[in-house]
Amino acid sequence: xxxxxxxxxxxxxxxxxxxxxxxxxxxxxxxxxxxxxxxxxxxxxxxxxxxxxxxxxxxxxxxxxxxxxxxxxxxxxxxxxxxxxxxxxxxxxxxxxxxxxxxxxxxxxxxxxxxxxxxxxxxxxxxxxxxxxxxxxxxxxxxxxxxxxxxxxxxxxxxxxxxxxxxxxxxxxxxxxxxxxxxxxxxxxxxxxxxxxxxxxxxxxxxxxxxxxxxxxxxxxxxxxxxxxxxxxxx
Length: 235
What we know:
The protein has helices spanning about 5-15, 30-40, 45-60, 60-65, 70-75, 85-100, 110, 120-130, 140-150, 160-170, 175-185, 205-230. The protein is mainly α. The protein has two domains: about 1-195, Endonuclease III, domain 1; about 195-225. It is elongated and about 55 Å long. The N and C termini lie far apart (about 60 Å). It is an enzyme of class 4 (lyase). GO terms for molecular function: 4 iron, 4 sulfur cluster binding; class I DNA-(apurinic or apyrimidinic site) endonuclease activity; DNA binding; DNA N-glycosylase activity; metal ion binding.
């Protein structure tokens, strides 16, 4: 099976499992999405949504975030991991958005990555979800799934994973591919307990085959042991 055909099979099976995959970070505009993605680093979307529910009611625009002392903002997001550094980045980001971009989140990828706390992944999420520009954001789920399914090599960098996916997936499907792979990794191909035994992609997944092999060996050994066990005479 050629690489693109294999990728098509992977995406079709994932889409069948998760037809409604979407961005789970709640937001109502590009600025809120940027803040939410910044907060999501090393933190679950569920926790971020709990925090931003009240955060986005208190802070409506960049000026609101810099109108309060840093320690107040820290307290508002204290349930988020690395809340101190994230609070600092949010205020720096807001200053730059106001001073350089007229108060609006920039629409260009290079400009987005100029913002404190905004890396390539965050910029890709904002570009694709807020501005409709096709992009594949490689987070921990996308990276894990790509490497387990041999779409990328185990030692590939995040950027290399992104480039390989962009090459294999039609551009118009990049954004949805990002969402579908995240759902697959978050709810099925989990880091610690992947559901290999019910995975439709097990036949092309070396990682799955490796994980299932010990179970098969245990069964084989048990059968062999039972077959060679001395039988006791009856009667």
